[in-house]
UniProtKB/TrEMBL annotation:
NCBIfam families: oxido_YhdH (TIGR02823)
GO MF term set: acryloyl-CoA reductase (NADPH) activity
Annotated source species: Pseudoalteromonas translucida KMM 520
Gene3D superfamilies to which the protein is assigned, alphabetical: Medium-chain alcohol dehydrogenases, catalytic domain, NAD(P)-binding Rossmann-like Domain
Domain of life: Bacteria
SMART domains in UniProt: PKS_ER
One Pfam family this sequence matches: ADH_N
Stated name of the protein: Alcohol dehydrogenase
Length: 330
């Protein structure tokens, strides 16, 4: 691995924070037990924060960002993977604490990897990415709590975001009646194409509300937090369930215990970063069985490593809709 490798590299000193497309040596890669030729990565919101420096995401420097990747094992000292295996990586602090996927090659711990499921291509895996994987974990959590299509209306907040749009699509495929909450009502037709039956303005949920409200939703998948999550809890039906997987509005939860005590609702936290391997494999196998190629092509665009930094700026300015897949070998 001595040949030069193209990678996005973030550096920081006392006076400067910068991201650039750089050439690194194979010997510079971390000392881990699986080496990977990266086929595709993605550009997520967290990657945008890291590349632009607009959020304290990166923990050490220099850093190769990229919280997702799919690739081919080129060398392995792990009993679990061998050369030519196709593998997926999501989370585990990769792209924040450990060098990530926005490069032609990566070196990773085998404990962080799972096999690419049969039935989806490497590009499709990154069209799904952490967003689809997190949405699938959320749907599985609702199922395990006994929520079925017959339970009633399911709310999805942050509907135009990656997790939200995938959650709408997956719930619809499974037969649920989905209501989407969004701040971009002009995107209502798009959300209905994904599978939402009803679209509401996020303003209905984003301001302080009563501790107990009219029972409306059987369940919800929330990526917003704060007042939105508190209002969801207050408007769940008896025995309702909400999964929380994001905090776009804030980390606070200014609500009441009343819905938990008087209506027996449940709040389930969804962590996708440190999830056990068995849960990851379950989620990806379900995704492989549910997601179709036409949908993935509709919601994604493909770029090269050379285009990553410009696209990161556009992402942070809210100018990009859908998934951005990075072809790391082109």
């Amino acid at each position: 691995m001595s040949n030069p490798i193209k990678a996005i590299v973030i550096n920081k000193d006392d006076n400067n924070y910068s991201a650039s497309l750089s050439s690194i040596n194979g010997s510079d890669l971390p000392n881990e037990n699986v080496n990977i030729d990266v086929l595709y990565s993605t550009l997520n919101y967290k990657d945008g924060l890291a590349i632009t420096g607009k959020g304290p995401v990166v923990r050490s420097f220099p850093m190769v960002p990229g919280i997702d990747l799919v690739g081919t094992v080129s060398h392995s000292t792990s009993d679990e993977f061998k050369s030519a295996d196709k593998v997926i990586l999501n989370g585990f602090g990769v792209g924040e604490k450990h060098w990530g996927g926005l490069a032609q090659k990566a070196a990773l711990n085998s404990d962080w990897l799972i096999p690419l499921p049969a039935g989806i291509s490497p590009k499709q895996a990154m069209q799904i990415g952490t967003a689809g994987y997190t949405a699938m974990l959320s749907v599985i959590a609702l199922e395990k709590q006994g929520i079925t299509p017959d339970s009633g209306e399911v709310l999805v907040t942050g509907a135009n975001g990656g997790v939200g749009s995938f959650a709408i699509y997956l719930l619809n495929k499974l037969g649920y009646n989905v209501t989407a909450a969004t701040g971009r009502m002009e995107q209502s037709d798009y959300l209905k194409e994904l599978g939402a039956t009803n679209v509401i303005n996020r303003d209905e949920l984003s301001t302080p509300g009563k501790p107990l409200q009219k029972e409306r939703f059987a369940a919800a998948i929330d990526s917003v937090g704060s007042h939105t999550l508190a209002n969801i809890c207050a408007s769940l039906k008896y025995g309702g369930v909400v999964t929380a997987c994001g905090l776009a509005q804030g980390m606070d939860l200014p609500g009441s215990v009343a819905p938990f005590i008087l209506r027996g609702i449940r709040l389930i936290g969804i962590d996708s970063v440190m999830r056990p391997k068995a849960d990851r494999i379950e989620a990806w196998d379900r995704l492989a069985s549910l997601v179709v190629a036409d949908y993935l092509d509709k919601i994604s665009t493909e770029i090269t490593l050379e285009q990553v930094i410009d696209n990161a700026e556009q992402l942070m300015e809210g100018k990009i809709r859908g998934r951005v897949v990075v072809n790391c070998q082109s």
